Amino acid sequence: MSTTTIATAKEVFDLLHDDLRAIEREFGDDAVSSVKAITEISDYLREGGGKRIRPSLLLLSAKSQGYSGGGMVRLGAVVEMVHTATLVHDDIIDAADTRRGRPSANTTWGNSKCVLAGDWLYMQAFRVALEERNFRVLDLLIGLTQQMVEGELLQMETLGRPVTEREYNDLIYRKTACLFEVSMRLGSVLAKVNGKTEASMGEYGHALGLAFQIVDDILDLTASEEVLGKPVASDLREGKATLAVIHSLENGTPTDREAILTVLTDQNFERVTHKEILAILSRNQSVDYAMNIAFRHAERARAALASLPDSDFKRALLWVPDFVVARDK
Amino acid sequence: MSTTTIATAKEVFDLLHDDLRAIEREFGDDAVSSVKAITEISDYLREGGGKRIRPSLLLLSAKSQGYSGGGMVRLGAVVEMVHTATLVHDDIIDAADTRRGRPSANTTWGNSKCVLAGDWLYMQAFRVALEERNFRVLDLLIGLTQQMVEGELLQMETLGRPVTEREYNDLIYRKTACLFEVSMRLGSVLAKVNGKTEASMGEYGHALGLAFQIVDDILDLTASEEVLGKPVASDLREGKATLAVIHSLENGTPTDREAILTVLTDQNFERVTHKEILAILSRNQSVDYAMNIAFRHAERARAALASLPDSDFKRALLWVPDFVVARDK
Predict the structure, then answer these.
(1) Is B3 among the domain residues?
(2) Which of A285, B42, B44, B104 has a Cα-to-Cα distance from B244 of 20 to 30 A?
(3) What span, in angstroms and rounded, lies between the C-alpha atoms of A177 and A205?
(4) Do B38 and A118 touch (CB under 8 A)?
(5) CA B96 – CA A33 distance, rounded (Å)
(6) Euclidean distance between CA atoms A170 and A296, whole angstroms
(7) Would the keyword Protease turn up in this protein's UniProt record (chains A, B) (predicted)?
(8) A-chain residues near B34 (CB < 8 A)
(9) What is the CATH number of the domain that holds B260?
């Protein structure tokens, strides 16, 4: 494999298989509390799956930089726990009914228990991270968590109104790219590389995260419910304008703008249908515009790896941005 | 003052005046976010006051053990931030309308923003604590926070049913005594004393915290609304059995027990009045029983200071347990 390009998700998965299994075990062991409700909620969330993209990035980052210790399994579980904790609290805030195709935890256990289970998962993530006895690890994780929490609050303040592309970029940085960046940087911290190398790995995660979220937001607008496994256009239903929508808002006709603003305000498709919105986006080539930006970020991610020594792990990292922009769900 | 016993709150306050002001400034500076809602909620909570008993304990602990650096101001703000974060999330869970005589934050900003503001305050507390670059400080704080969060969940599971004295002790340890203990231990960590001395200081905080919460719970049952500044018997209205109530449950007549169970189930005083409950407690001498246990904990707290060198700060620490058990609000 070492002289060819990685071409499939399976090859990457094979490369990380044992470590990802170890991370699942670590997460499972970590998420056990003496309080039954916490263990139940944690297990439910953990078993709900998810792509484990953040631990995979951390593993690839650490391994591509020559690290081979046990810290990457612990910290892989940590970034997934932080991610899970944010999902629990976000579902409460969005009053979400489903998550990953199943009832969301708050519909089963109620908001109160989920507030506390989320708190506990944050603390447990920090507790496991603390075992590394590395202040830089904690600096990164705590700074990250604050960025994410602030981002969710900023998001709330934009609901129902148009946002600028600049605001959108800040929101998706906080929502997604920030944790991708930190996952990559943690790999560098474990591998004890210099600051410049860590910054490049962070740049990769940052750009990849932006590409990932832009594509996620496009799929929410354009995919079918069967493919996506969740209700489509949920962002518009929550009053969130994402990149393609912002493009049509800024470049469409006054009538286009009016129609979009109606949906953002109504937070439903009663006066303007989802189909009408898709027609507006199509007429303004707004989905192409957003996809192009995602491609540019993906390219920027790959470029950030220029000085990384060649390895299977580097090839996997080079492949991930393509996968992220080409996926259909 | 050095040869006499400290006798008033004012003397203790004078002793800590400058440091407590510095802690208020630190808390004020720390609780500023680039996100307006967070700063607003933090300011609201900070300005709501509170007794600042946790930072005071930390200061007295550090100073009585010879510490004089800036860490105690930072960590004093940290323990108050952790305390504030737990209050924000607890008020959401209890659906509380008031806190410290004012509307609770969730009634003003809504639950969603308060979930996130609480998260942010926890992270900010850890971020400031991290500046100490001391792993023991972080171990104590993160272990503490998990104990408190688990305690709140355990509390939820007991609502509306009788609990044993053992369960009650565990709940009040997690709710109050644990943070008192950690505040005292943090003073020891700053002063770099040996493990045995730290354990004694922790024992003081632990015992004091139990005494504090037992008295708090008694006042909730027996004080008048004017004196307390909040609705009386709120614990029973929430279905919480506290120490005096537990004593009557276990030692009263079957009729007494029936009446108490009715209130715990109904979570109101419609079928059995507050006055009838007070008569039951009085007939069984249950308030005396609970007060006696509080006195014993207060005595145990004082005894834990036996080997601490004499100083104004030690005298203040010796005075605090008396104050805690003698207060009427």
Answers:
(1) no
(2) B104
(3) 7
(4) no
(5) 27
(6) 17
(7) no
(8) 150
(9) 1.10.600.10
Give contacts of A142 with chain B, Cβ < 8 Å. 123, 126-127, 130
Question: Closest-CA residue in chain A for B125?
Answer: A142
To test the contact with chain B by mutation, choose from A41, A109, A116, A159 the residue with the greatest count of B C-beta atoms within 10 A, namely A116
Residue B1 lies in a domain: no
- Residue B2 covered by a domain: no
User: Which domain, by its residues, includes B196?
Assistant: 9-326
Other C-beta atoms lying within 10 Å of the C-beta of residue B160? 15
% of chain A residues with pLDDT over 70: 97
Q: Which two tokens stand for residue B36?
A: 């307006």
Question: How many residues are present in chain A?
Answer: 329
The two beta strands, A98-99 and A102-103, are antiparallel
CA-based nearest residue to A89, from A99, A79, A78: A99
What's the average model confidence in pLDDT over B205-215?
A: 98
Which residues of B sit within 8 Å Cβ distance of A?
33-35, 37-38, 89, 92-93, 111-113, 115-120, 122-124, 126-127, 130, 133, 135, 138-139, 142-143, 145-146, 149-150, 152-154, 156-157
Mutate to test the interface with B, among A78, A141, A149 (most CBs of B within 10 A): A149
What are the pLDDT digits (tens) for B23-70? Answer: 999 999 998 888 888 888 888 888 877 789 999 999 999 999 999 999
Burial class (CB in 10 A: 0-12, 13-18, 19+), A138: buried
Q: Name which of A323, A318, A280 is nearest A64 in CA terms.
A: A318
Q: Which residue of B has its CA nearest to A91?
A: B112
Q: How many structural domains does chain A have?
A: 1
In chain A, which residues have their Cβ closer than 8 Å to the Cβ of B130? 135, 138-139, 142
Indicate if the pLDDT at residue A3 is higher than 70.
Answer: no
ipTM attached to this prediction: 0.91
**Dihedral angle, C-alpha B222, B249, B175, B37, nearest 10 °:** -60
DSSP assigned state of A252: S
Q: For residues B287 and B175, is the Cβ–Cβ distance under 8 A?
A: no
Cβ–Cβ below 8 Å for A127 and B146? yes
- Residues A206-233 have pLDDT tens digits of 999 999 999 999 999 998 877 776 678 9
Chain A residue closest in CA terms to B35: A150
Q: How far is B299 from chain A (nearest CA, A)?
A: 31
By three-state DSSP, how is residue B273 classified?
A: coil
Is A272 inside a domain boundary?
A: no
The confidence band for A2, taking pLDDT boundaries of 50, 70 and 90, is: very low
| Amino acid letter, A208 | L
What is the per-residue pLDDT for A4? 58
Res. B2: pLDDT tops 60: no
Of A319, A324, A283, A303, nearest to A11 (Cα)?
Answer: A319
Within a 13 Å sphere around the CA of A236, how many CA atoms are in the beta-carbon half?
A: 27
Instruction: Identify which of B119, B130, B143 has the shortest CB distance to residue A149.
Output: B119
In 3D space, the residue among B74, B84, B87, B64 whose CA is nearest the CA of residue B30 turns out to be: B74
Nearest 5 degrees, angle CA B236-CA A113-CA B53?
Answer: 60
